[in-house]
UniProtKB/TrEMBL annotation:
Enzyme class: hydrolase
EC number: 3.2.1.8
Protein name per the record: endo-1,4-beta-xylanase
Top-level lineage group: Eukaryota
Native source organism of the sequence: Fistulifera solaris (Oleaginous diatom)
Keyword set, alphabetical order: Carbohydrate metabolism, Glycosidase, Hydrolase, Polysaccharide degradation, Signal, Xylan degradation
Length: 384
């Protein structure tokens, strides 16, 4: 059943974080934050303060940026160890001053690691990687207690992604990073994060499960995982959004491993549906139904958006013009905002968990598949 008339009143008491505070379980409602708009735009800071109880630094806490990417030559190994925490501190200190939880993102990600690592021997790389984890976690110890330790180590087909760490240190680099992170701060909550892993019975979704099950079996100190949730309503094949059932079952089996699970980088692209009415329907349904499905599992403790206003979204820089978030460019609530708030509010004490969402099946009693109004058919050549 689809519900499209989410309630539209914008009094503070009904912010996302307020809805989360009234829930029958702990819910992090977080968002990625950039230091520039945080300092330059009062509406950005005010919306952040009102709506979210947690934040993650979108870019400036990664290895390359911490070494002064753009200012320093990161092809020169002399840059290693030359940390500048200024931009990251702006966001982290603002969050703590405003009583927000902070998640550290990300200690080990090949995309934003300094290119000079290529020049190192395997032993030198092992040393610098360990020192990087100790240095950054040491600097933020007591301020950041939850960390994305490793990000996107899996390739789209579920194999280990080819990157500098795999090439020089072998598959055990992931395990090593978690053990070093635990040594650096034994009280920290340590997470593995990846994309396109939200659906059960998919190559990458299954590889994600088996990677985590293997780490748990080896008693590696890992406490949870993040599934990014960069959803594309017009996606087909492995880019197709999961149904609530597929997401719920994926989270259930991860929870059965003793892990916490969060949706870590949610945004919902719709522009490729090329139909404004369908775009709104799809975005509302995804923000509502997939969030209900995720939070309906005990192990799911958080929903983190990858930004909150369409004014500041990586999608427009990386893909194409789109409006994937819940506030428009003027920080006005979009229909997707109310859909998300209703999803969180449906976990309020006394509410009916599930809020009418199809959680155990993909097809409802009328024979309609979830999302049938807007889901795109598989292109001919993808129907094998
Ligand atoms: O801050 C500088 C600005 O001063 C400069 O004028 C501008 C033009 O070069 O660049 C700005 O820095 C950009 C930064 O985003 C802030 O907007 C960097 O060039 C750009 O590389 C950086 O991209 C970030 C990317 O990760 C790399 O860190 C995106 O914002 C961020 O959304 C993206 O996030 C990743 C997650 O970490 C992992 N999962 C996928 C997700 C999307 O790619």
């Amino acid at each position: 059943m689809t519900r499209n008339n989410y309630h539209n009143n914008n009094d503070n008491h009904d912010s996302l974080s307020h809805a989360a505070s009234r829930a029958c379980k702990h819910i992090d409602i977080g968002t990625a934050v950039l230091p520039q708009p945080l300092q330059a735009e009062s509406l950005y800071a005010a919306t952040l303060q009102r709506e979210f109880n947690a934040i993650v630094v979108e870019h400036d806490l990664k290895w390359g940026p911490l070494l002064g990417e753009g200012q320093n030559d990161l092809n020169d190994i002399k840059c290693l160890g030359q940390y500048d925490f200024t931009q990251a501190d702006i966001v982290v200190n603002w969050a703590l001053q405003h009583d927000k939880k902070v998640k550290g993102h990300v200690l080990v990600w090949h995309v934003t690691s300094p290119p000079c690592l290529q020049q190192l021997t395997a032993e030198q790389l092992r040393e610098h990687l360990q020192r990087h984890i100790y240095t950054v976690m040491g600097y933020f110890r007591g301020r950041i207690r939850t960390w994305d330790v490793v990000n996107e180590a899996l390739a789209p087909d579920g194999s280990l992604a080819e990157n500098i760490f795999l090439q020089k240190l072998g598959p055990s680099y992931i395990e090593k990073c978690f053990r070093w992170a635990h040594q650096a701060d034994p009280d920290a909550v340590l997470l593995y994060n990846d994309n396109k892993v939200e659906a059960i019975d998919t190559p990458k979704g299954d590889a994600f499960y088996h990677l985590l099950a293997d780490l748990k079996a080896k008693q590696v100190p890992i406490h949870g995982c993040g599934m990014q949730g960069h959803f594309n309503a017009a996606g087909t094949g492995r880019n197709r959004p999961p149904t609530p059932r597929m997401l719920k079952q994926q989270i259930r089996r991860l929870g059965d491993l003793g892990l916490t699970v969060n949706l870590s980088e949610v945004d919902v692209r719709t522009s490729r549906l090329e139909n404004p009415v369908l775009e709104t329907v799809a975005q509302k349904q995804i923000y509502h139904d997939l969030v209900v499905a995720a939070l309906s599992e005990p192990s799911c403790d958080g929903i983190w958006l990858w930004g909150f206003s369409d004014k500041h979204t990586w999608v427009s820089h990386f893909y194409y013009d789109d409006q994937p978030l819940i506030f428009d460019e003027d920080y006005q609530q979009k229909p997707s905002y109310y859909a998300l708030r209703e999803a969180i509010a449906s976990f309020g004490v006394g509410s009916v968990v599930g809020n009418g969402v199809l959680l155990e099946e993909d097809v409802n009693v009328h024979g309609n598949t979830w999302g049938h109004e807007w889901m795109q058919p598989e292109p001919e050549d993808e129907i094998c």
